[in-house]
């Protein structure tokens, strides 16, 4: 990539990541090890959750969560029509009946009204994805699903550290997942986590993460998987988590800079509902449909600015042609019109001003 390019995402490592990784290598504990336990214990204390399990990546976390709550072939689940499709992909791989609910046009996330339209007596679980860090109507959804005896699964891959009503994203539902991919708020290169307060789910998570084996070596108690993470990756995470406050403050500050320099009369920013929002990206739509995201992307690249378009909605993906795709009007619109501007710790105020000045001229 051009050295002058302002990238859409760029991970930052601090002092202790290298130190901890070196210690992990010298310890000979490459697979398991103290940094995995240390990171899990930190999250349990910080997020006030009884159980936290590090796994190899965010999608593995979703898979492990599905298995631990006993979702099985033919079970019906509901997932958002717009957002990263990890949960829907895993659901289809497991042979689940994945139905899609539309999202809110302003928050870009699942809303209770749309969920009510698609759930049936057969629905076992609803997956809520906190897209771009937004927690939307999570407490309303939880209350409704609890009355219906339907599980709430949170995909909090993009919302690590976000809070609403003093509850962290991922800890509101029956079970929640995180991602520590290189583009996320906390990075391990790859990496993910599952959190839950349910002891039965926790027992199953422990089994499914490690081949279905518990105490006696080679004795498989369930058809397990290998979702384990390396000690070196966890060591990077431990170095990152020491700087969590600094990371969060910088991301919030960058978001404020965008609000200063963007021409807010010509765009619509994602409506944020959290009491404490840690932005993963700066997501917006244009008030006018004349300029499409691809046009903006191409033009900004010529000015050494990398942006990203929105995710593909379920109705725009051929692999979901056999799934329920009705009434995904907002999902379809957002998929075709969302623009995501750079947001990472390497950005300086003058970088954001340059991005916004260039962007404003294009729209």
Characterise this structure.
37% of the residues lie in helices and 15% in strands. With 363 residues, it is α/β, with parallel strands linked by helices. It folds into 2 domains: 16-241, 3-Layer(aba) Sandwich (Aspartate Aminotransferase, domain 2); 244-362, Aspartate Aminotransferase, domain 1 (Alpha-Beta Complex). The strands form 3 sheets. The chain has a 7-stranded mixed sheet with strand order 1-9-8-5-4-2-3, sandwiched between helices. The longest helix is centred in the C-terminal third of the chain and has 18 residues, at 244-261. The radius of gyration is 20 Å and the shape is globular. It starts with 15 loop residues before the first helix and ends with a helix.
Describe the global form: globular
Order of helices and strands: HHEHEHEHEHEEEEEHHHEEHEHEH
Count of discrete domains: 2
Number of strands: 13
Q: Which properties best describe this structure?
A:
seven-stranded mixed sheet, single chain, Aspartate Aminotransferase, domain 1, four-stranded antiparallel sheet, Aspartate Aminotransferase, domain 2, 363 residues, alpha/beta
Concise synopsis of the structure shown:
With 363 residues, this protein is α/β, with parallel strands linked by helices. It contains 12 helices and 13 strands.
How would the blueprint of this fold be written?
Layout: H1 16-27, H2 34-46, E1 51-55, H3 58-68, E2 76-80, H4 86-93, E3 97-101, H5 112-118, E4 123-129, H6 138-148, E5 151-155, E6 163-164, E7 167-168, E8 175-179, E9 192-196, H7 199-209, H8 231-241, H9 244-261, E10 267-269, E11 282-286, H10 293-302, E12 308-309, H11 329-337, E13 339-341, H12 349-362
Parallel strand pairs: 2-3, 2-4, 4-5, 5-8
Antiparallel strand pairs: 1-9, 6-7, 8-9, 10-11, 11-13, 12-13
Helix pairs in contact: 1-8, 2-8, 3-4, 3-7, 9-12
């Amino acid at each position: 990539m051009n050295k002058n390019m302002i990238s859409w995402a760029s991970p930052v490592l601090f002092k202790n990541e290298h130190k901890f990784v070196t210690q992990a290598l010298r310890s000979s504990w490459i697979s398991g090890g103290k940094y995995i336990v240390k990171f899990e214990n930190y999250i349990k204390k910080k997020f006030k959750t009884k159980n936290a399990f590090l796994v190899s990546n965010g999608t593995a976390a979703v898979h492990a969560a599905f298995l631990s709550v006993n979702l099985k072939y033919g079970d019906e689940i509901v997932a958002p029509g717009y957002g990263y499709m990890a949960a829907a992909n895993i659901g289809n791989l497991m042979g689940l009946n994945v139905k899609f609910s539309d999202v809110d046009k302003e928050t870009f996330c699942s809303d209770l009204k749309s969920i009510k339209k698609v759930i049936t007596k057969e629905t076992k679980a609803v997956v809520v994805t906190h897209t771009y860090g937004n927690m939307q109507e999570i407490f309303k959804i939880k209350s409704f699903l609890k009355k219906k005896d339907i599980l709430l699964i949170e995909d909090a891959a993009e919302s690590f550290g976000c809070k609403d009503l003093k509850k962290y994203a991922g800890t509101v539902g029956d079970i929640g997942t995180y991602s520590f991919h290189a583009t996320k708020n906390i990075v391990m290169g790859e990496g993910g986590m599952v959190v839950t307060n349910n002891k039965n789910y926790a027992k199953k998570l422990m089994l499914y993460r490690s081949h279905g084996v518990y105490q006696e070596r080679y004795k498989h108690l369930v058809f397990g998987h290998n979702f384990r993470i390396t000690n070196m990756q966890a060591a990077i995470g431990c170095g990152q988590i020491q700087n969590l406050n600094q990371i969060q403050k910088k991301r919030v500050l960058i978001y404020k800079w965008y609000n200063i320099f963007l021409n807010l009369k010509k765009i619509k920013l994602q409506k944020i509902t959290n009491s404490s929002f840690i932005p993963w990206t700066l997501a917006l739509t244009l008030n006018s449909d004349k300029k499409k995201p691809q046009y903006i992307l191409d033009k900004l690249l010529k000015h050494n600015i990398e942006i990203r378009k929105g995710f593909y909605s379920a109705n725009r993906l051929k692999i979901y042609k056999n799934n329920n795709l009705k009434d995904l009007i907002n999902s379809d619109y957002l998929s075709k019109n969302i623009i995501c501007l750079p947001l990472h710790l390497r950005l300086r105020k003058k970088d954001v001003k340059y991005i916004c000045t260039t962007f404003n001229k294009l729209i």
